[in-house]
């Protein structure tokens, strides 16, 4: 293809367009179409921002109607009917049935904004500054969120350390017996560890960018109990693993925990629109009016689609049940594909899953072979050694099978 404006004008910081050089023009369900009409099966889903696929017809119609009727689009944090409807729906369909009592804050448009708000709130509430996060964690690219992110390539340009934060090894804790948390216990007590007692621990239940390491539910429960005993706040970053990705609305539900703060973004709008929430226990609402604000805190277009998406998918158990069956199908399909490569393992949980390969070059080759066969999927992990699959949650079982078959061909081509 001739050199074009993307190549000459956009910064070299681009990444996805280098792996997938086509120009994508249209999208529907689990498919994207290039300018020349070539169809790609999308197992990338906007890095988890499109859990319900592209352009869901009912959400699209609602959006068109809202705009056609001059609905307010931008409103800072003013009250609008669209925001009211979203808050009421969240309360009725998500929070109440799960016995979760949270105040809701709109911290800005994206995932990194909700993490920033969570870190700031934890520091304000506790009066302590130190935040613990995990190795290979990913929490965003603004400086606070970056300080708790464990990816040295992403941190390098900003200088380290950024703020007062330390990393706890994640892998040691998610596999095998429940740890006794000896090191962590010492740090939390601030007794002889030399590490300041933290304000909070921030955790992803599945490390989406860090290699699809999945925390066990009993481990999460033990962590939550430990933090409670030491009066340290637990922040669950559900930006990627939330909104149904792991099979339940929140990724921590099966652990039976009630995190102090929860970060939500990516798929919450239901339509790939920028939207983020920070949820926190009511007693943590110590903000002063205007203390943490921003211009794009309440996108009414996103409120419109978000409220309807919650109704469409979360008003009864049927969506979750079907999803559970497809999760099983995906797991079995991945085990079969993984059997082709010695020592490779299936990683992750639910529809946030993939295959770890012992040779770090393999995953990139598999993704390239998949692209040649019109399947979009990305890689994950500190050395990009994991092939990551994130199909839309409402994909049909047939399309899921199609993707698995292409993946199998791609793995055989990349390793054969
Ligand atoms: N937290 C997690 C767990 C994420 O996966 C991401 C994005 N991949 C972020 C935070 C940051 O979100 P955003 O890119 O929307 O700022």
TrEMBL record:
Cofactor: pyridoxal 5'-phosphate
Organism of derivation: Nesterenkonia massiliensis
Descriptive protein name: Diaminobutyrate--2-oxoglutarate transaminase
Lineage of the organism: Bacteria, Bacillati, Actinomycetota, Actinomycetes, Micrococcales
PROSITE patterns: AA_TRANSFER_CLASS_3
Class of the enzyme per the UniProt entry, highest EC level: transferase
Keyword Hydrolase: no
E.C. number: 2.6.1.76
Keywords per UniProt: Aminotransferase, Pyridoxal phosphate, Transferase
Protein family membership: Belongs to the class-III pyridoxal-phosphate-dependent aminotransferase family.
Single annotated GO MF: diaminobutyrate-2-oxoglutarate transaminase activity
Source species, domain of life: Bacteria
Alphabetical list of InterPro entries matching this protein: Aminotrans_3, Aminotrans_3_PPA_site, Dat, Ectoine_EctB, PyrdxlP-dep_Trfase, PyrdxlP-dep_Trfase_major, PyrdxlP-dep_Trfase_small
Classification via Gene3D superfamilies: Aspartate Aminotransferase, domain 1 (3.90.1150.10), Type I PLP-dependent aspartate aminotransferase-like (Major domain) (3.40.640.10)
SUPFAM superfamilies: PLP-dependent transferases
Keyword check for Transferase: yes
Residues annotated as transmembrane: none
Pathway, per record: Amine and polyamine biosynthesis; ectoine biosynthesis; L-ectoine from L-aspartate 4-semialdehyde: step 1/3
